[in-house]
TrEMBL record:
Signal peptide (UniProt feature, chain positions): none
InterPro entries: RibonucZ/Hydroxyglut_hydro
Pfam family, one: Lactamase_B_3
Name of this protein: L-ascorbate metabolism protein UlaG, beta-lactamase superfamily
Lineage: Bacteria, Bacillati, Bacillota, Erysipelotrichia, Erysipelotrichales
Top-level division of the source organism's lineage: Bacteria
Length: 223
C-alpha cells in the first residue's frame, strides 16, 4: 500500500487494483495507473475538502467512482458511478464496504474496508473545542465527538487520517488523543494542519503513540 499526501486533508491511497482519493482540495495528484480503478471520496462541501476539479480527473470513466457526502451538489444528476451518502449508512461495491459516520462539523467521515484492510478518513469529524467558546459549547462538542468514536471503536483500523488543527491552540491534539484512547489504530496520518508541519513534530515529541511525520506535499509512504 502506498499513501501520498496531496495537501491539507487530501490523500491518495494506492492498492493492488484500486486508488482511493480522499478530500482533494489542492495540490498535485500523481500520475495514475490507467488499469486501476479510481474511487474518489469527498466528505463534505467545504472548499478545503471538495474541489469540483475531481469531476475532470484524467482517468477512464468506467474505472472511476465517486463516493460523496449528500451535501455536495452533483454537476450532473445523470452521471454514472456516483453514490451519495448520509451519515450512518453502509454501501457495498463488490469487495469494498464503505460506512459513514456523522461529522461534528459538516458531512461525514468514511470507514472503508478493502483488500482485508480498514481505512478511516475523518473528514471534519473532530473534537472541535476552542478557547473562545463557552464550557457548555465545548462539553457538547466533546459529547458529540465521543458518541461517534464509540461507533467506530469496534473496528480495528489499519490507516487513519485524523485532523490535527493548530488553530485550536491548546485543544489541537485533543481529537487524536480521544480517538486513540478508544480505537485501535496501526498507522495515523495527521491532516488539516494548514501547512504548519511543526504541529506534527510537536505532537510526536509529547506522545507515546506517534503519527506519521509529514513534511511536504507529495510525500509518499509505503505501508
Amino acid at each position: 500500500m502506498k499513501i501520498t499526501y496531496i495537501g491539507h486533508s487530501g490523500f491518495l491511497v494506492e492498492l493492488e487494483d484500486n486508488y482511493l482519493l480522499f478530500d482533494y482540495f489542492e495540490g498535485i495528484i500523481p500520475n495514475l495507473d490507467q488499469s486501476k480503478e479510481l474511487i474518489v471520496f469527498a466528505s463534505h462541501n467545504h472548499h478545503d475538502h471538495y474541489n469540483p476539479k475531481i469531476w475532470k480527473l484524467n482517468h477512464p470513466n468506467e474505472k472511476t467512482r465517486y463516493i460523496l457526502s449528500s451535501d455536495i451538489p452533483l454537476v450532473d444528476n445523470k452521471m454514472k458511478n456516483v453514490y451519495e451518502m448520509n451519515p450512518n449508512e453502509m454501501l457495498q461495491l463488490e469487495n469494498i464496504v464503505i460506512r459513514t459516520f456523522k461529522s461534528t462539523d459538516e458531512g461525514v467521515a468514511f470507514l472503508v474496508e478493502i483488500n482485508h484492510k480498514i481505512i478511516y478518513h475523518a473528514g471534519d469529524l473532530n473534537l472541535w473545542k476552542w478557547e473562545e467558546e463557552s464550557d457548555a459549547y465545548n462539553k457538547k462538542m466533546e459529547a458529540q465527538y465521543l458518541k461517534e468514536i464509540d461507533l467506530i471503536s469496534p473496528y480495528g483500523i489499519d490507516i487513519a487520517f485524523l485532523p490535527l488543527d493548530p488553530r485550536q491552540e491548546i485543544y489541537t491534539e485533543g481529537g487524536i488523543e480521544a480517538f486513540v484512547d478508544k480505537v485501535k489504530v496501526n498507522q495515523i496520518f495527521p491532516m488539516h494542519f494548514w501547512k504548519d508541519y511543526s504541529v506534527i513534530q510537536k505532537y510526536n515529541q509529547t506522545h507515546s503513540i506517534k503519527v506519521n511525520e509529514i513534511t511536504y506535499e507529495g510525500q509518499e509512504f509505503n505501508i
